[in-house]
Amino acid sequence: MLDREGFRPNVGIVLLNQRNQVFWGKRIRTHSWQFPQGGIKHGETPEQAMFRELHEEVGLHPEHVRIIARTRDWLRYEVPDHYIRREARGHYRGQKQIWFLLQLMGRDCDMNLRASDHPEFDAWRWNEYWVPLEFVIEFKRDVYQMALTELARFLPRASHHNRYLRAGMRSHRRDDEAPDAGPLDGPTEPNPLP
Fold it and tell me: Which helix (DSSP H) or strand (DSSP E) does residue 9 occupy?
């Protein structure tokens, strides 16, 4: 299904763990890595396509994730001719994508790269948010930059747990700043481990 300009409607998925690292999949039998993505079928909404692709490529179900945000408009990239099948040349130009930012609510072990009969990935890893820009195939780089930039403002505060402090991370203050008013909600010194 192509639009009048030769772009195939598609969804892209930026899946975050609790540290705001992104899921990065290695395409099966290649050395190229990318975010999960896939075409929107006739009659599907972008959200329906995203959940279908998320299950087909990563093995996750809607209850494993939370939608944080999506891009407002279509983001497009053109595919170089040498990557386009001969019979599609002349009318297929590339992809137009709606990107979704998702928070993983499940666990890493909920992921299953063999959830469909035609797996997309044969390996995966977590990367820091901006790392994929350095490694994605060149013709997708601009659309990755646009998607990550637009979605970055919706990144949740990463949950980093400090095992020494009951309340987790505390904001640091300079010595010349006055302490916050009000009672302390935990120790200010690390508790030694038993």
Answer: strand 7-16
